[in-house]
């Protein structure tokens, strides 16, 4: 059995996206002795050169750039043996697919792995300990990603439920906005704990409806990431919620925000999906109304508190 500190053969690791997460992941791979190529659409390194003889292509591109980047890769040639890793947490508005589903459809001959967990990039860049999940239907590919990125400060677990792993990381961003609202309104610890717990039930309801394994949502990529982003001011999604509670307009919040808050787009896609498929998502629905300027933060709280009384284990 391999341990985190075991040496591993040096791999060529191509990271797409030099934002907060791409840069942090590049640092982790570099510290493990791999040959890292960090590509950004604004950088000097061409995509062709970044892909040459690569062993692994990891995308940390925000959701809006994923389809366009995939299109660029499709016009280039790179080894079929290269593992594709998606670290994006979003949903595509056009297809309502997850990023890994888009990668797999575009590159059916490649192994696709999802990398997701409670991974606030700022803490990882500072060398604080963290754990994550590498999930794939091809276990050997997930294990390769595990060996490439694992270290004494970044513990990677494997999982064979890529969809559940990806949906946990994606859907919790909506709830992180709600948690930011809760804290921004100073509603207290009881309220935030109730919110996170009820939201977990909601996340599992949607995630399993879409094909994720229920167990996955209680792991690092589900509950773990939900806790990280709902309790940390480092989370951009949490920051959006917090600022909304102060009455700031969304456009102004996003303009000032450092980096991407995927939860904003994910909420819109999720509500579209949930209404088409009649999945009850009360918390996400209030986030949707708030983001779209239909209610105030205070009204969202009132709407959640005034819902019909029911047993805990019913929707
Ligand atoms: N930061 C974090 O803590 C974590 C983030 N994630 C996820 O990783 C993804 C990226 O997040 P993060 O790095 O924080 O966000 P940033 O905003 O810091 O970076 C986004 C990256 O995506 C690139 N990008 C956006 N649109 C395009 C496009 N059309 N073509 C090519 N590149 C594009 C940006 O390039 P450019 O700079 O040129 O605009 C940039 O490199 C998100 O889905 C996020 O949810 C997951 C785990 C942790
Ligand atoms: O996904 C993340 C941590 O796991 C990052 O969260 P934010 O995108 O809200 O900053």
Oligomer state equals single chain
Order of helix and strand elements from N to C terminus: EHEHEHEHEHEHEHHHHHHHH
Strand order of the largest sheet: 2-1-3-4-5-6-7
Span of the ends, CA to CA:
43 Å
Query: Helical content, roughly?
Result: 40-55%
Tally of helical runs: 14
Percent in strands: 5-15%
The biggest sheet, with number of strands, parallel, antiparallel or mixed sense and barrel status, is:
7 strands, mixed
The total beta strand count reads: 7
Low-confidence stretches: none
**Average pLDDT level:** 96
- Indicate the overall shape: globular
Radius of gyration: 19 Å
Small molecules bound: NADPH dihydro-nicotinamide-adenine-dinucleotide phosphate, 1,3-dihydroxyacetonephosphate
Pfam family, one: NAD_Gly3P_dh_C
Function: Catalyzes the reduction of the glycolytic intermediate dihydroxyacetone phosphate (DHAP) to sn-glycerol 3-phosphate (G3P), the key precursor for phospholipid synthesis.
Protein name: Glycerol-3-phosphate dehydrogenase [NAD(P)+]
Binding site for substrate: 89, 236-237
Description:
The chain is α/β, with parallel strands linked by helices. Helix content is 49%, strand content 11%. It has helices at 20-31, 47-51, 66-74, 99-106, 121-125, 139-149, 162-184, 189-209, 220-230, 236-245, 250-256, 263-276, 282-291, 297-305; strands at residues 12-16, 35-39, 56-59, 83-86, 112-116, 130-135, 154-159. The chain has a seven-stranded mixed beta sheet with strand order 2-1-3-4-5-6-7, with helices on both faces. Helix 1 links the parallel strand 1 (12-16) and strand 2. The model has no long low-confidence stretch (mean pLDDT 96). The chain binds NADPH dihydro-nicotinamide-adenine-dinucleotide phosphate (NDP) and 1,3-dihydroxyacetonephosphate.
């Amino acid at each position: 059995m391999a341990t985190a500190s075991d040496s591993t053969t040096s791999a060529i690791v191509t990271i797409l996206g030099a934002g907060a997460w791409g840069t942090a992941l590049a640092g982790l791979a570099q510290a493990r002795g791999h040959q890292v190529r960090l590509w950004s659409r604004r950088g000097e390194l061409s995509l062709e050169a970044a892909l040459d003889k690569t062993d692994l292509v990891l995308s940390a591109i925000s959701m809006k750039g994923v389809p366009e980047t995939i299109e660029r890769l499709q016009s280039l040639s790179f080894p079929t043996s290269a593992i594709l890793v998606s670290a994006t947490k979003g949903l595509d508005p056009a297809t309502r697919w997850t990023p890994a589903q888009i990668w797999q459809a575009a590159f059916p001959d490649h192994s696709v792995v999802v990398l997701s967990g409670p991974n606030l990039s700022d803490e990882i860049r500072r060398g604080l300990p963290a754990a994550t999940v590498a999930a794939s239907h091809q276990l050997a590919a997930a294990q390769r990603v595990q060996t490439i990125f694992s270290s004494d400060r970044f513990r990677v677990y494997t999982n064979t439920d890529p969809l559940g792993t990806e949906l946990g990381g994606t859907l919790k961003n909506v709830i992180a906005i709600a948690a930011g609202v809760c804290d921004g309104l100073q509603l207290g610890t009881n309220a935030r704990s109730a919110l996170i717990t009820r939201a977990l039930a909601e996340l599992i309801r949607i995630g399993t409806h879409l094909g994720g394994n229920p167990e996955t949502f209680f792991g690092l990529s589900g509950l773990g990431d939900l806790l990280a982003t709902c309790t940390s001011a480092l989370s951009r999604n949490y920051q959006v919620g917090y600022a909304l509670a102060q009455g700031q307009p969304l456009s102004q919040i996003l303009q000032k925000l450092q980096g991407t808050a995927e939860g904003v787009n994910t909420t819109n896609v999720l509500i579209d999906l949930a209404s088409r498929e009649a999945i009850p998502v009360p918390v996400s629905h209030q986030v949707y109304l708030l983001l779209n300027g239909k209610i105030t933060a205070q009204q969202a709280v009132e709407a959640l508190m005034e819902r019909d009384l029911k047993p805990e284990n019913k929707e």
